From TrEMBL:
This is DNA-binding LacI/PurR family transcriptional regulator. InterPro entries: HTH_LacI, LacI/GalR-like_sensor, Lambda_DNA-bd_dom_sf, Peripla_BP_I. The keyword DNA-binding applies. It holds the Pfam family LacI. SMART domains: HTH_LACI (SM00354).
Length: 328
């Protein structure tokens, strides 16, 4: 079994340089890192992860915290898979954490990724209080909250673009199912819808169904909207998991999509694609990859604490909004 010393000798570098090149530490030319990595691969070198973690004073594990009651939602499942893949590629274990407060030394992880932190979340506060570096998916809406880093998307801009898309397809009265404002993306979606309506001098038509959007609540909300004296001619379901139930409720009323009602979802996924529903590609797997990589970079000193990354999103138009615009 080749050792690190063998790799260093074959690459004509010191053992320290070989170690830094393979671990991503230090200030080395990229050409040196590539040469050492190529030599290590050629020799079949595999680092001793236990020894490496002992030298660094690390556990060799990071944690992942997702919002409560979201285990079955496609977005968070895909984000978790991306996080697992990124951690595995770096020789790091990933632990799914329960939503309970922790004390210093209470978790055997080197840092934590938090998906969609909620306003004034005591669990997230306890992680920071325990001295654990935290990287978040989207900003923490808690005032004065500071973390080791975050990866975020411009949800306000994408919600506005999706509303514009519905309007261009002929919608004049768009109803929105919202997730509430306990998360940053929920706040951004709410404000974007309010601003969009104000610019057109129309009253906002929105019903809050919650982040986890239980089916009975979604059915109740959609039924109330359709029974209103002036029902909507388009419906946007923002929370992950709400679109399927909302579409079932619409069709149970005998309404055709898109002929009678334009329909769009904010969170895409296989189920939404199968239903031919216009949606946003939130890139959850890529988000998981980037969150873990950012956390590891901060832990290893490759990037400064407080780093922010932007993850671009895109709308995927499908048949549910394919009605020809009025006058066409």
């Amino acid at each position: 079994m080749p050792t690190l010393r063998d790799v260093a000798r074959a690459a004509a570098v010191s053992t320290t340089t070989a170690s830094d090149a393979l671990s991503g530490r230090g200030r080395l030319p990229e050409a040196t890192r590539r040469r050492v990595a190529a030599v290590a691969a050629e020799l079949g070198y595999r680092p001793n992860l236990t020894a490496r973690n002992l030298r660094r004073g690390r556990t060799g594990a990071v944690g992942l915290l997702t919002p409560q009651h979201t285990a079955g939602l496609a977005y968070y499942m895909q984000l978790a898979m991306g996080a697992v893949e990124a951690a595995h590629a770096q020789g790091v274990a990933l632990t799914l954490l329960p939503a309970v407060e922790v004390s210093r030394g209470g978790l055997h992880v080197d840092g934590v990724v938090v998906a969609d932190p909620a306003l004034d979340d005591p669990v997230v506060r306890s992680l920071a209080g325990a001295g654990l570096p935290v990287v978040t998916c989207e900003r923490d809406p808690t005032p004065s909250a500071e973390h080791a880093g975050r990866v975020e998307s411009d949800h306000a801009a994408v919600v506005t673009e999706l509303l514009d898309h519905l309007e261009a397809a002929g919608a004049r009265r768009v109803a929105v199912l919202t997730p509430g404002q306990e998360t940053a993306y929920g706040q951004d979606a709410h404000r974007a819808h309010q601003r969009w309506c104000a610019q057109r001098s129309v009253p906002p038509l929105a019903v809050e169904v919650g982040l986890t959007a239980r089916p009975e609540r979604v059915r109740e909300a959609v039924t109330a909207l359709l029974d209103a004296p002036e029902p909507p001619d388009a419906l946007l379901a923002v929370p992950d998991g709400s679109a399927v139930t909302a579409l079932e409720t619409v069709r149970a009323r005998g309404l055709r999509v898109p002929e009678d009602l334009l329909f769009a979802a904010y969170a895409g996924g296989p189920a939404i694609e199968a239903l031919d529903v216009t949606a946003v590609d939130l890139a959850p797997r890529q988000m998981g990859h980037r969150l873990v990589q950012l956390l590891l970079d901060v832990l290893d000193g490759r990037r400064p604490a407080g780093t922010r990354e932007d993850l671009p999103l895109r709308i995927v138009p499908r048949g549910s909004t394919a009605r020809a615009p009025r006058g066409a």
